[in-house]
Amino acid sequence: MPLADAMARAEEEGFDLVMIAPNAAPPVCRIMDYGKYRFEQAKREKLNRKSQKVVETKEIWLSPGIGDHDMDFKVKNALGFLSDGDKVKVTVRFRGREMAHTDLGTVLLKDFAEKCADAAVVEKPAKLEGRRMSMFLGPKPTK
Questions:
Q1: pLDDT, tens only, 32-56
Q2: Which residues of 105-119 are buried (b: 16+ CB within 10 A; e: fewer)?
């Protein structure tokens, strides 16, 4: 259909002539209410943004001499973060002479990971960086 005829027909119906596929041969156009189309498209985009979950990384600090009750409390907090869909960075901080016993930190982080095993997956294993040893846990994928 010639462009002039299409414009006249859109004008008769009180709508807009919108080019859908300009690169096609011949170009494809559609008669529609463009303002309503833009409004519905913006509404869909807003709904999609609303339904997205932003994954945060929460950090939990430990020390090599942590007690059993303190450890259980930190595990409980980590499980809460993981159930919310957040990642958890577990860090052991070494001070002074504790640097001579970094193996205790490795054991501590492995124990922490075992206690969280039902809800977490180890994304990055324990790694010593300066005076800190860190490990990343992520929530287990749901089926």
A1: 888 898 999 999 999 888 887 777 8
A2: bbebbeebbebbeeb
CA Rg value for the chain? 29
Superfamily of domain 3-51, CATH level 4 = Translation initiation factor 3 (IF-3), N-terminal domain (3.10.20.80)
Strand order in the sheet with 132-139: 57-62, 87-93, 132-139, 120-129
Whole-prediction pTM? 0.63
Reduced to 3 DSSP states, what percent helix, strand and coil does the chain have, rounded to the nearest 5? 45, 30, 25
Domain spanning 57-139: CATH superfamily: Translation initiation factor 3 (IF-3), C-terminal domain (3.30.110.10)
